[in-house]
């Protein structure tokens, strides 16, 4: 902490004492200015202004962000610079109607968010991912990387997540589709959720996990823990980025390998986006079926292709046909989801992986309508369950 922060903290405490003693006229900014004039008259004007800004921010916590974070309807807060603050409510992105006084004020708010987490950003390390105590996910990018000023994105964590019933209520999928997916998960089909950025993949993954029987041992693996499983027997693992000196990184891939030694009944991987694809495929094909994950893709067929590409990148010596075969054996169901322009998240298709079918998938449901299960592997699995 800089000396000026200590001074700001001392003045903030004085401010509270003054207010308790009835010395406030209700205008916080004016009170702070008067206090700084009185207690720090020896400082240069620019330093006094900086000090006043810090005291004010300390006194109001996260400043303009505070009412947004206190609003339970806000799912995401996006700050693209002091004058551009947006929120997502009910799937819609809209201007938040608040602003910061300056880049400096916004940076102070960012520092206040990161400091208790032991993280910081500066010109040398202008990117930062962190997770708040309440589980919300925070990303910060500052100049020179961000051209419009410091950027802050906070994705709100819902303590209990959304259940499959919640998703039906929100119009994300039909009740019959939710029921089909719950049967697939309970019967240990491996399910992959695919979709674009922010299409609700993680939320759906979390809801699907609710169909895992309570007695099973679940290991979850994520970059930044977002899942909130309702079962008791859950081991949650979180990857670790390298330190500023480039040491100590623990990848998703290392955690997937480690999870196999933890006697899991199910492995839930938040998102497959790297070499872990290969380890996951091998695990799925050697007795760890019934796992759940998400992948960034444009269609169910594309999700399979993406998984193949990721696995091939992990071991360039593997023949493509071998990896394609592993993908087809490992993944049984793909749930493809999209974010509509009106903000709704919609399951566009549920598909069973069938090697002989066109695109290697058979569509089981689309647009909320169920089609036949066919006679493939999934039909047999569900028939036996
Ligand atoms: N079914 C849904 N209906 C309405 N809003 C949803 C739904 N699913 C998710 N959301 C909202 O959409 C945002 C993104 O959700 P989520 O994190 O699940 O998406 P994602 O596809 O995993 O995103 P990313 O690509 O960043 O991993 C969240 O703010 C969440 O509250
Ligand atoms: Mg996600």
List the defining traits of the structure above:
Rossmann fold, single chain, 9-stranded mixed beta sheet, binds adenosine-5'-triphosphate, 3 domains, 15 strands, 385 residues, binds magnesium ion, alpha/beta, 13 helices, Beta-Lactamase, 6-stranded antiparallel beta sheet
Written overview of the protein:
This protein folds into three domains: 3-59; 65-155, Beta-Lactamase; 164-384, Rossmann fold. The model has no long low-confidence stretch (mean pLDDT 91). α11 crosses α12 (320-330). It is of the alpha/beta class and 385 residues long. The protein has helices at residues 3-20, 28-39, 45-59, 65-70, 103-114, 164-169, 175-186, 201-209, 252-259, 276-284, 300-314, 320-330, 377-384; strands spanning 74-79, 85-89, 92-95, 127-131, 137-141, 151-155, 191-195, 218-222, 234-238, 266-269, 292-296, 333-339, 345-353, 361-366, 369-370. The protein is elongated, with a radius of gyration of 25 Å. β4 and β5 (137-141) form a beta hairpin. The longest helix has 18 residues, at 3-20. It is built from 13 helices and 15 strands. The relative contact order is 0.09. It has a nine-stranded mixed β-sheet, sandwiched between helices. Strands 3-2-1-6-5-4 form a six-stranded antiparallel β-sheet. Bound molecules: adenosine-5'-triphosphate and magnesium ion. Magnesium ion binds at residues 201-202, 271.
């Amino acid at each position: 902490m800089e000396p000026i922060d200590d001074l700001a903290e001392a003045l903030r405490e004085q401010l509270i004492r003054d207010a308790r003693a009835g010395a406030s006229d209700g205008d916080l900014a004016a009170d702070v200015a008067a206090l700084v004039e009185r207690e720090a008259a020896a400082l240069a004007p620019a330093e006094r202004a900086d000090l006043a800004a810090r005291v004010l921010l300390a006194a109001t916590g996260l400043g303009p962000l505070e009412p947004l974070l206190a609003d339970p309807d806000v799912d995401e807060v996006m700050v693209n610079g002091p004058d551009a603050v947006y929120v997502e409510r009910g799937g819609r992105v809209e201007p938040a109607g608040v602003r910061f006084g300056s880049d400096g004020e916004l940076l102070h708010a960012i520092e206040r968010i990161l400091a208790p987490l032991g993280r910081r950003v500066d010109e040398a390390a202008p990117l930062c991912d962190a997770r708040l105590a309440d589980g919300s996910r925070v990303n910060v990018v500052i100049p020179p990387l961000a051209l419009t000023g410091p950027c802050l994105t906070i994705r709100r964590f819902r303590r209990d997540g959304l259940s499959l019933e919640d998703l039906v209520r929100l119009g994300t999928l039909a009740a019959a589709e939710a029921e089909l997916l719950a049967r697939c998960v309970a019967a240990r089909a491996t399910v992959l959720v695919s979709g674009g950025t922010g299409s609700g993949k993680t939320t759906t993954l979390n809801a699907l996990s609710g169909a895992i029987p309570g007695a099973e041992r679940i290991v979850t693996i994520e970059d930044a823990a977002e899942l909130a499983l309702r079962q008791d027997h859950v081991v949650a693992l979180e990857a670790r980025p390298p330190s500023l000196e480039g040491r100590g990184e623990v990848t998703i891939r290392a955690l997937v390998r480690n999870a196999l030694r933890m006697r899991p009944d199910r492995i839930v991987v938040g998102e497959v986006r790297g070499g872990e694809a290969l380890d996951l495929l091998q695990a799925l094909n050697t007795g760890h079926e019934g796992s759940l994950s998400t992948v960034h893709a444009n269609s169910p067929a594309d999700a399979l292709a993406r998984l193949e590409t990721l696995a091939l990148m992990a071991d360039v010596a593997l023949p493509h046909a071998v990896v394609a075969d592993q993908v087809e054996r490992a993944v049984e169901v793909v749930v493809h989801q999209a974010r509509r322009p009106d903000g709704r998240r919609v399951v566009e298709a549920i598909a069973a992986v069938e090697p002989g079918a066109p695109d290697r998938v058979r569509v089981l449901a689309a647009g909320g309508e169920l089609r036949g299960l066919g006679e493939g592997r999934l039909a047999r699995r569900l028939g036996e369950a």
